[in-house]
Prior knowledge:
- The chain is of the alpha/beta class and 257 residues long.
- The chain is built from seven helices and 13 strands.
- Strands 1, 2, 3, 4, 5, 6 and 13 form a seven-stranded mixed beta sheet that branches. A six-stranded mixed beta sheet has the order 7-8-9-10-11-12, covered by helices on one side.
- Strand 11 (213-215) and strand 12 (221-224) form a beta hairpin.
Amino acid sequence: MKLAVGQFQVSRDWQDNASTIITLMQQANAQAARLLVLPEAVLARDNQDSHWVINAAQPIDGPFLGQLLIASQTLAVTTIFTMHVPAEGGKARNVLIALRQGEILLTYDKIHLYDAFTVRESDNVVAGETLPPLLHIDDFTVGVMTCYDLRFPEMARALARQGAELLVLPAAWLKGPNKELHWELLTRARALENTCYMVASGECGPKNIGHSLVVDPLGLVIAQAGERPQLVFTEIDKAHLSAVREQLPVLQHCRLL
C-alpha cells in the first residue's frame, strides 16, 4: 500500500490551513496514495497565544472540516489529522479525524494530555477516556494515536493486540534538548515492540520539530522528512509484516494483559 506523510507549519488562519490540507490531499491522491497522515492541531495555531486553540476551535460540523469533507468527495485517499473542537468548561477537545470520500470514518479524543516539559495541555483541553476504534484501509488494519500518546507503550500495545498492523500518529512535537532523539527513539520502539508499521507526522516551523517518519515492523526508518514543509511517499508491504511477525511473534508470546 502506498502512503504519504505530510508536514507543514500551521497558521493562525483556519482558511489558509484548510487550503494547504486540500492541496496535500489532492497531491497524495494524484500519486495513488491510499493514506495521508498530517500533523496534530491543524485547524489553527498561534505560537504566541496558547489559548488560541480555544478561540479558534470549531465543531465537527463547522466550516473547516466541512471544506475538507467536500474536497475529499472525489478522492480515494484516507486523510488523518487532529483538530480542536469546543468542549465544556470553556475548553476544547483534541479530536483525531479520519476522513475519505466525503465521510468521517472515525474520531478519537486524545487520551494523554501533554502536561510535561513546563507545558500544560490540560489547561485548555479535556482528555478523552476511551481507546479509538480500529480503521481498515485496503488490507491493513490501522490503530491511531495522538502526539503524547507515543510515550505510553500500553496504548500502542493495546491497539496491536486488538489487531492493528499500522499505527498512525499525528503530532506537534515541541523542540527542545534531545527532543528529535526522543521522537525517533519512541516511534521506532513502538513499531518494533509491536511488530507494526508506524507513520508519525509532525508539524514543522519555529516551535515544532517536523521530522515526520515512517518505520517498518523491525524498527527501521523507511522514509523521513526534514524540518521544512514536505510531502513524503513510501510503500508498506503486508507480506513483509507477516514475515516479521512469523520471525518475531511477540504479540503471541505476550502473557501480560
